[in-house]
Structures are given as structure tokens and as C-alpha cells.
Specification:
Distance between the termini: 5 Å
Number of domains: 1
CATH superfamily: 2-C-methyl-D-erythritol 2,4-cyclodiphosphate synthase
Number of strands: 7
CATH architecture: 2-Layer Sandwich
Low-confidence stretches: none
Radius of gyration: 15 Å
Helix content: 25-40%
Order of helices and strands: EEEEHHHEHEHE
């Protein structure tokens, strides 16, 4: 068995008049994440982690902002496309660990929904997906409520 690890990071600015999408679900909040797609920094970080583990570049290479077919696309669709690439290359997801950094809103009540949405999209057991949420202790753009970021680490296996 061969194992590969990848890390992903994504940050998006919070803006008015957008839905807040995190982990594939809509979170009730007064602002949403600005982005080419729906701006879901959690799913973007997971996509980058999977791509990194396979040494297949990053999300910007696969879904460039210059390609308008990805304008406002749900990030769950991007995640599914990255998962298809992993499966084509004979990789299986062993686990995903994600940390979301946001001052607001409080994300704890939504973590189980995110885990379910991600595991369903990837067709993996919920036990293989972990979501953590923390604040930035009021420091920098995240701490002042201007942005939300996410980190993800993924372990892939291949026989």
C-alpha cells in the first residue's frame, strides 16, 4: 500500500449580498464569501489537499478564474471533479482533517452537517472526515471579521 499526504489552504473575503457556503452547506449569516465559485473555503482547501497529495497541482490550475464555466459553481461540484481525478488515478481517501478559522459565525452547530455533506459527496464514511472550527482571537483580517480561512490535510492510499 502506498500513502500520500496533501495539505490545502484557502481564504476568502466576507462580502455583502452572498450566501455563506462552508463545507457544502449554507450557514445563516449576514455575509458570504467572495469568490469565482461559491467561495467555499473549506471545500477549496480539501480540493487543494487532495490535488497536492496526488502531485496534481492546485485548484486554480484545474478550475481557473478565467474559465467562466466555473462562475458561481457550487464548490461541491469542484470537489466531486477532484474526487473523480483521484479515482481515475486509483487513489482512495483515507481521511480528511479540516480546520476552519472564523471569528463569526459560530460554526460548532454546523460541523456534523458539513461532515455529512462532504462524506456523501466523496462517497466515504463520515468517520473519515473531521471538521474543527476556531477563531483568530480578533487578530488580522480573519479576526476583524473580514475573511474566513480553512486548512485541510488529506491522506490518500493506493494499492
Amino acid at each position: 500500500m502506498q500513502y500520500k499526504v496533501g495539505i490545502g489552504y484557502d481564504i476568502h473575503r466576507l462580502v455583502n449580498e452572498r450566501k455563506l457556503m462552508l463545507g457544502g452547506i449554507e450557514i445563516p449569516y449576514v455575509k458570504g464569501l467572495q469568490g469565482h465559485s461559491d467561495g467555499d473555503s473549506v471545500l477549496h482547501a480539501i480540493c487543494d489537499a487532495i490535488l497536492g497529495a496526488m502531485a496534481k497541482g492546485d485548484i486554480g490550475e484545474h478550475f481557473p478564474v478565467t474559465d467562466h464555466k466555473y462562475d458561481n459553481i457550487p464548490s461541491l461540484e469542484l470537489l466531486k471533479k477532484v474526487d473523480e481525478l483521484a479515482k481515475q488515478n486509483k487513489y482512495q481517501i483515507e481521511n480528511i482533517d479540516t480546520a476552519i478559522i472564523a471569528e463569526e459565525p459560530i460554526l460548532g452547530p454546523f460541523k456534523k452537517q458539513m461532515i455529512k455533506k462532504i462524506s456523501d459527496a466523496l462517497k466515504i464514511d463520515e468517520e473519515k472526515v473531521n471538521i474543527k472550527a476556531t477563531t483568530n482571537e480578533k487578530l488580522d483580517a480573519i479576526g476583524s471579521g473580514e475573511a474566513i480561512a480553512a486548512y485541510a490535510v488529506v491522506l490518500l492510499s493506493k494499492e
